[in-house]
Amino acid sequence: MNARFDSIIIGTGQSGPSLAVRLAKAGRKTAIIERKLFGGTCVNTGCIPTKTLIASARVAYLARRATDFGVIVGGPVRADMSRVKARKDEVVRRSNEGVERWLKNTPNLTVYEGHARFESPGTVRVGGELLEADEIFINVGGRAHVPDLPGLNQVAYLTNSTIMDLDTLPEHLVVVGGSYVGLEFAQMYRRLGAAVTVVDMGPRLIAREDEEVSAAIKEILESEGIHVRLDAECITAEPRDGRVAVGLRCEDEPREVEASHLLLAVGRRPNTDDLGLAKANIKTDARGYIEVDDELRTSVPGIWALGDVNGRGAFTHTSYNDYEIVAANLLENAKRRVTDRIQAYALYIDPPLGRAGMTEREVRAAARPALIGRMPMTRVGRARERSETQGFMKVLVDAATEKILGAAILGIEGDEVIHSILDVMYADAPYTVLRRAMHIHPTVSELVPTLLGDMEPLH
Ligand SMILES: Cc1cc2nc3c(=O)[nH]c(=O)nc-3n(C[C@H](O)[C@H](O)[C@H](O)COP(=O)(O)OP(=O)(O)OC[C@H]3O[C@@H](n4cnc5c(N)ncnc54)[C@H](O)[C@@H]3O)c2cc1C
């Protein structure tokens, strides 16, 4: 006999667990299914371990700069990778076990451990069991995309998942992919002591950002000794005496770079190829992402898709926001929509990039009259006091409505400071509200009103 539930959640990423607990508490008999690690990517191989490793890398970086601050540390600085990894594992273990405990201790919620696959629109198979429900929520996330590079099948390579097992320092790490994931690993490993080369096919790093952001990030990374190889139109991999030779250029020199380790960071793909979606008639786009409407309903009534798998966001906060939208609409009869949210994210190199709303390029493309304010971090007292003045702040405002269109803060605390701008955008208030705010001294945020007081027309 099939096990019958009111609601089934597939996957324990960043929306599934919260939704499962909320539905169970609301009186729905609920099941949640996880095939691997509770907490999904963010907890086990994404945000949490990377930010924990970045914290170790920052300590190494500051220790090397100690004399700049008049502090003497004895001898050369080096990372003990087994301890760096052990610290990371401990932080991850607590989160992973916390999610598992939370789910297993929630009344009215049954946890299944195994791979879930649709058998029909209302039926899901886990191992030998068939589960049925009127409401099914898909939160299966994604995994690293492994590109079809010539020679890749002959060499050992790492992804964001397998690099988590590394407890030794690569002598030379080549990172293929100069975007969010790749750059975080590049700087982290450089600071931990490895030689690092970033390879990208495009003409600049992190290409969706404005050119000046890409250029400043490249400068920051290069200032720490990271080699950046752009326009690598012929990326190949070849084993060479226990190492890996990564091809860069077809014609011009240098044609390749040789390294001890290769990390692939060239994007993600959704975990939809083994979910039996065809048996449930759930539509996907050409890249395998599940198609959803503005309330995250799939093409099949009674089935929703949340998190990275719906292609409407690729962050923990977008996945969690998906949960909030679905729960509010189901349980509170609200009318929340994905398009109500404002794009926001951070890139966790150091100093970080905090982003909200449109880029300058997007504002220019929209051809709307706009104002722009720019300020280098050298003008920020907090940055000078910390001897960390790299980067700049930039804000764009609609000249007619005075509403903030977007901002980029590349500098210390940029990931936090961006929220004062983001909240004014959510309040739908004119930028003048923030311009007149009194902020606390000495912070980075105190310069945001000053920045907004010095806006010029965008030409
Ligand atoms: C290196 C790295 C760093 C990142 N850093 C950040 C960051 O700093 N900030 C940020 O906001 N985002 C970050 N992200 C992105 C973030 O991790 C994801 O956006 C976030 O985890 C949301 O994922 P999700 O909820 O869609 O599902 P996921 O977290 O991917 O979880 C999906 C779960 O579903 C399970 N599953 C899959 N298929 C099945 C099946 N058929 N049956 C049962 N279970 C299944 C998987 O095992 C997994 O546990 C990072 C990602 C990476 C790779």
Level of helix content? Answer: 25-40%
Radius of gyration, rounded? 24 Å
Average pLDDT, all residues: 97
Describe the global form: globular
How many helices? The count is: 12
- Which molecules are bound in this entry? flavin-adenine dinucleotide
Spatial order of the strands forming the largest sheet: 19-20-23-22-21-24
What distance lies between the first and last C-alpha atoms, to the nearest angstrom? 69 Å
Q: Which class of secondary structure composition applies to the elements? A: alpha/beta
Largest sheet: 6 strands, antiparallel
Q: Care to count the β-strands?
A: 24
Percent of residues in β-strands: 15-25%
Q: Which regions contain 5 or more consecutive residues with pLDDT less than 50?
A: none
Describe the structure.
The protein is of the alpha/beta class and 459 residues long. 30% of the residues lie in helices and 23% in strands. The chain has 12 helices and 24 strands. The strands form 6 sheets. Strands 19-20-23-22-21-24 form a 6-stranded antiparallel beta sheet, with helices on both faces. A 5-stranded parallel beta sheet has the order 4-3-2-8-18, covered by helices on one side. The model has no long low-confidence stretch (mean pLDDT 97). The chain binds flavin-adenine dinucleotide (FAD). Residues 10-15, 33-37, 40-42, 46-47, 50, 115-116, 139-142, 160, 181, 271, 275, 307-309, 314-317, 319, 348 line the site of flavin-adenine dinucleotide.
